[in-house]
Amino acid sequence: MMTMAALLILMMLGWVVYDAGFAARDSLNVQAAADTAAYSHSSVEARSMNMIAFANVGKRVTFGMTSYYLAVWAAYIELIALAAVLTIACWVADVFTFGALTSVCEKLTEFTIETGIVMAKEAPDLAVFEGDLVRNYYKKDMEAFSNYQKYMASLTPWWGWAESTMRGMRNGAAATASWPPPKDWGASQTDQIDELPIQKMENAVEAYAELCVRVYSEFDILVHLADYSLKNFVIERTAIDGEAFDWPRPVMFGITGPLAVVNMPIGCAAMGVQFGGDVVPWEMKNYDSQAAWMQVASNLVFAYNPDPTAMSASGDRKKYEYLSADYTSSVPLIYAGGGDFAVAKSEISFQDGAPDLWRTSWTARMRPVALPGEWSSLGDDITLVKAWRDVLPQILLTSTIASAADMAGGADIQDGLLGAGGDLIRMDAAMGGLTDDYIDGFPK
Are residues 237 and 348 located together in one domain of the fold? Predict the structure, then answer.
């Protein structure tokens, strides 16, 4: 009899360990689903940030290349004007020096004439550039870059939300919702919407100046100068009738190339007028506090998986029915829990100094749900329970569908719909209890 009693105790302990293992497994699965959903959402947003930054770089390179071409023409105009003035001055001085400067004046005259010849030969190319290439090629490139950035900025919140929902559900959560919700979702508790922390620059003149400055600061100007030098000193040197050209041209190219670097603001102003608003880059938004920035850069995911048999009177060996209840609940279903619930948070992060939209260094990472002082800094209008209630319609819809699927598999309607409803009531109460005073440092 003692052996049988001991075996019964061991069997009950084994059941407890077995059930605890299953409960822990279910809880971990839902937490993993929440983590996966959160990380997927931020991964989509980080990818979009990188692509928008890449389009910014495309705008900068195209703007710098075309501006340098016009800067070269400005350099030629300045050079021929200076050469003509020096040539006239030289011949005048030659008269007063009784021919002492004749050889110098002849060289200056040859140089001025050669510069004019080069400009005359390149004039049709300038006409094609201004009349066809800019309007039908480069400007359309700028329009494509601009439309792509606008498209990605508006699409990404819905893309991230859909990716988060599907990843969470595929990884074990029947219901997954990401906060803040996308625009036009109809959030009822907060005014927060999911959006990328970026905007198109408003001042066009400042935008042109920004692009022009970055042509220098990002060393694009060295590439343009090297390209100009390579084409003129190497390629063209053997392209004219198969023979090397005489001294005026190397001097001419050696002067106009660096002079065009100085003239870039002239080319930038001219190309800014021709490209218009399409060339305007996107930039990071400014926020009043670190908490506001972190809220915009982060995504909070709620995941839920209903289990109508976990706490039912007919399921799981009635392990919670051995003792009679010693309480009377004023709120139905408030204590008879069933499903598993998890919360996770992720964010986009810039890995190369201060965040900007000029380098593709954005990535995604997991982060705590609440850092010390983070939620309290956002004010009373943004709390965890309000964030939960913003996405509650989505949770309610998907959990109802999941419960209906369980009932189709044989579960009782009371264990299904009422069990999920009770879970949602308890979740709301739990979220309400996690106020700013208690949430600091809350990881998941």
Answer: no
